[in-house]
Design goal:
Blueprint: E1 2-18, E2 21-35, E3 38-44, H1 58-67, H2 73-79, H3 84-99, E4 116-117, E5 120-122, H4 127-140, E6 144-148, H5 153-166, E7 173-177, H6 184-196, E8 201-203, H7 211-220, E9 225-227, H8 237-247, E10 251-254, H9 261-274, E11 278-281, H10 288-300, E12 323-326, E13 329-332
Parallel strand pairs: 5-6, 6-7, 7-8, 8-9, 9-10, 10-11
Antiparallel strand pairs: 1-2, 2-3, 4-13, 12-13
Helix pairs in contact: 8-9
């Protein structure tokens, strides 16, 4: 068994705004494992400025993995525990090596017999741009829309009010993602304003790391809270359990490339299910390689909520995709 990797720079079609700034490009690494005449491909989808493994020795660790690719699975898992995106790429490449083609998790989804509902994502920007995106998603037939908020709440609130005037919560599910953009004092006010509009949930209303403040918000919030960045860097099973018990959120958001791949996601899901915390799965600006693997994995989890899967359409130089979007349903193009 041999392995090699290469760096790939994804270019955004249009600068994409978040509360952490505007994104113009997205760095990623493609890992290829070969054995005899078979090849498996995975994506080590590091997210600079957000990933736990955004550190100077990242490529050094990737090289180490390639040099030690024949080592025991459990040994590699322990060695890569602080490099969740590298482990994520390794998992994908092994699965693809086993199943071939574009397959990672064969199922009715990859057979073209079933699909999944996803939410439409609205990126931050000026009011005109955000409203333009919303109109496009509604025209495409989305029944669940997620808006990035936390930059200009007054304007963002007005957009949500306009949407709710036109569509009841039974017609259109609205989610918001603050990416930690509010202070705790601001968050309390915002949570009530969101409840008045029947907003489904808010992701990460305050910055991660303050478990006491987040627990206080979750205990009294009129709008369900979903933890997102809060999960990043929480490696050990006991610490994951302690976080969920302490904060007791209404939901958690699972981004495999940021939380230890499929193994890490499975662990979070099992813990959340034990204490009746809801969850859904979200991609995190992976290329179509990682996105395809996440979509296939997500289907196997049998979660009927709209999932936060991207469509691969943000980049000018993405890889060919096996995924196809029809309305708000994502399909696998079975060849």
């Amino acid at each position: 068994m041999k392995a090699e990797y290469y760096r790939y720079l994804l270019k955004f079609k249009r600068p994409s705004g978040t509360s952490r700034g505007v994104l113009y490009e997205k760095e990623t690494f493609i890992l290829e494992i070969s054995e005899n005449e078979r090849k498996g491909t995975g994506e080590c989808a590091i997210f600079r400025g957000l990933s736990y493994d955004d550190r100077p020795d990242y490529e050094e660790k990737l090289k180490w993995l390639c040099e030690n690719i024949q080592a025991d699975y459990q040994f590699l898992k322990e060695e890569l525990k602080d490099f969740p995106s590298i482990w994520f790429g390794y998992e994908q490449a092994l699965l693809n090596l086993t199943h071939g083609g574009d397959l990672y998790f064969p199922s009715e989804f990859t057979e073209g017999k079933s699909s999944m509902m996803i939410n439409g994502l609205i990126w931050m920007g000026d009011i005109g741009y955000m409203e333009e995106q919303i109109q496009e998603k509604l025209k495409e037939g989305f029944h669940c829309i997620k808006l990035k908020i936390g930059v200009d709440w007054e304007s963002e609130h007005k957009i949500l009010q306009k949407l709710r005037e036109k569509f009841s919560h039974s017609q259109l599910e609205l989610r918001v993602d603050a990416n930690g953009g509010f202070s705790q004092v601001e968050a309390k006010k915002v949570l009530q304003q969101l409840a008045d509009l029947n907003i489904h949930s808010i992701e990460q209303p305050i910055k991660s790391g303050d478990w006491n403040s987040m627990a206080e918000l979750c205990a009294s919030t009129p709008t369900p809270i979903a933890l997102d960045e809060e999960l990043i860097g929480v490696i050990h099973h006991s610490e994951k359990h302690r976080l969920l018990e302490k904060i007791n959120p209404q939901f958690i958001i699972l981004k495999p490339s940021l939380i230890g791949g499929f193994a890490g996601s499975d662990e979070w899901i099992a813990l959340a299910d034990q204490i009746s915390i809801g969850w859904w799965i979200t991609s995190a600006l992976e290329s179509n390689i990682g996105l395809n693997a996440i979509a296939q994995y997500t289907f196997t989890k049998n979660n009927t909520m709209p999932q936060g899967l991207g469509t691969g359409g943000l980049f000018t130089n993405n890889f060919q995709s096996a995924l196809e979007l029809k309305g708000d349903q994502i399909f696998f193009k079975n060849k």
